[in-house]
Write the structure tokens for this entry.
Amino acid sequence: MVKKKETDAGTEQKILAAAKKVFVKKGMDGARMQDIADEAGINKALLHYYFRNKEKLFEQIFAESAGRFIPKVKAILIADTGFYEKIESFCGEYIDMVMQNPYLPMFVMNELQKQPAAMIKKIFKGSLPDLSKFIGQMQEEIKAGRIKPIHPAHLIMNMMSMCIFPFIGRPMLSAVMGISDTQFMTAMEERKKAVPKFIFDAIRK
Amino acid sequence: MVKKKETDAGTEQKILAAAKKVFVKKGMDGARMQDIADEAGINKALLHYYFRNKEKLFEQIFAESAGRFIPKVKAILIADTGFYEKIESFCGEYIDMVMQNPYLPMFVMNELQKQPAAMIKKIFKGSLPDLSKFIGQMQEEIKAGRIKPIHPAHLIMNMMSMCIFPFIGRPMLSAVMGISDTQFMTAMEERKKAVPKFIFDAIRK
DNA sequence: AATTTTGTTAACCAAATGGTTAAATCAAAT
DNA sequence: ATTTGATTTAACCATTTGGTTAACAAAATT
């Protein structure tokens, strides 16, 4: 069984790419099935032939998008590296990933907030990172007197905030500080090193 | 001219309160005029009697919501207080304000991102805070050798990120760190002091 | 009290939108 | 060459939704 009539790229893949583009930009409520079909260069009926309905299609896109957020956290925090390396690689890799998908954080966070708490648990089910190792390493550093006593929750919040928020607050930040798109991206590139440095400076004793 | 037929609360105010509730929760695209009417306990036609259309109503709500973000920044940064006091009061007051409107940041940032760049400039027109004084104070501290040399843009981004992001990433953060709603609010209360402390520790020489 | 103005509603309308149907293509199998 | 089964499309349908109309009710004005 060779590939059927499907065009080169594969209709299903074209649809997924188009859907991702439209959903990420407009959100579940703002997205139109017709727009997705147009973007994919196909008929609207064909869209429903491949994906039963809007919700099913959305779920697929959302799961894939949300999935990008957690596994990376998990891998980094569980890795067999030191406390400081973990912070460094988390910031570097996270900011890097988000730079390649600047609208993903807003999309995921926004849709996540619309879901009921129960659904959220289901979404993260299994993919939740085990923080205990990271927290353990942190408490070791505290006990050894190398870093100040700070609640792990706050440190993690601070780290994620500084990595992700600039992309969510981009329009406001750009307006407030009067910076262009290229200046923004340059600043983000800097932050891959600047954020971990800021954190180390804050916690080092 | 006494008040007309309007019920005690004033129909217009009831509408605005209802609209804010629905828009902030569902966003422009997800909000339904019927839902707003129901929430306000009035007929849908009456909604259009007070506000010509959905867009006009949305603009009013959005302007009021977005307006809460900037003026406070402005007032604090321009105030005749010291560099450190400004950071303290910014974090304290900002987190306080957001705690009272936990869904406001997501709403404003999300709608802002959908607007074209030109519209954003118009929105912030005039209300843009003058950062020069704050930056000047900061550079003085740097020159005096009391804080490390750090780009003001990064400091401001870090400060705003740590104050605002937890409310935007709340579902994710709550899931990742397994905390309840009350635990979350307790943590936010702590952050009013913890964030400025974190910042001072990071920049102090 | 009569009249005009303002506030409120039920019923209605047109456009948009998610989804379906039935026919048409096309590639593979017979 | 014919048949078969999957793919694709144009046309259509039902519901939702923003918005309007016309009539009614309550104040305000005369």
Notes: DSSP finds twelve helices and no strands in chain B. Residues 87 and 186 of chain B are 21 Å apart (CA to CA).
